[in-house]
Specification:
mainly alpha; four-stranded mixed beta sheet; 5% strand; CT398_CC_hairpin; coiled coil; Oxidative_Scav/Glycosyltrans; Zf-RING_7
Length: 239
Amino acid sequence: MNKYLQDLIKLSKFDTAISMFEPKIENEKAKLATFVETAEEIKASINALYLEIDDIKSKRTKNNIHLSELKSKLEDISKKNDSVQTEKELKALQLEEEIAKEQIAFANEEINRLDTLAETKEESLKELQDKLTEEEESIKEIQVAVDNTIEEINKERNVVYQDRSELLEKFDNKILTFYEKIKRWAKDSAVVPVKKQACYGCYMKINDKTYAEVIKSEEIINCPHCGRILYKEDETEEA
C-alpha cells in the first residue's frame, strides 16, 4: 500500500477517535446530570410543600383567633341575657347566639380539616426529604464513578493525541493540506473504506477502473462521486 495512503488512514482513524472522546465525556456527565436534575426537582417540591404548610398554619392561626373572638362573643351574649327586658331583645340575643355557635362549629371543623391537611403535607415532606437524601447519596457515588471514567477517557485521549503528533512529525505537508481540505467538509469521513465496490462515505458504487486502482493501493484515489479518499480494507478488517 502507498505509504502516504497508509499515513492518511492512520491520521483519519486518530481524528475519528479524538472526535469520539468529547461525546463520551458528555455522556458520562449526562448520567450525573439526570440525578442532579431529579434532586433539584425534589428540592423544588420540598420548598413548595414548606410554603403550603406555612399557609395552612397561617390559616389555622386565623381560625383560632376567630374562634377565640366567637367564644368571647358567646360570653358577652350570656351576660346580656341577665339584663334582657323584652321578648324582642331575648329573641335577638338567641339568634345571635345560634349564629355564633354555628360559626364556632364551622371554625372547629375548619381547624380539624387544616390539622389533617397539615399532617398529610408533613408526611409528604418527610418522604421527599428521605428521597432527597437517597438521591444525594446516589449523586455522590455517581460523581466518583463519572470522575474516574472521565479521567480514563482523558488518558486515552492523551495517548491518541501523542500518537497523532508523532505521526504528523513525519507527515508530508502537501498530503496533509490535501487531507485537511477534504476534512473541512467531510469531517471524520475524509478517508473511508470501499466495501462491496461502494464508497462508505457517500455510499455510491464506484466504477470498475477506480475500484481496481483502490485495490492496488499504489496511489491515493478519490471517490469520483464525493471526493473522499478511498482505501480497501483487508479481508479480516472488512469482515
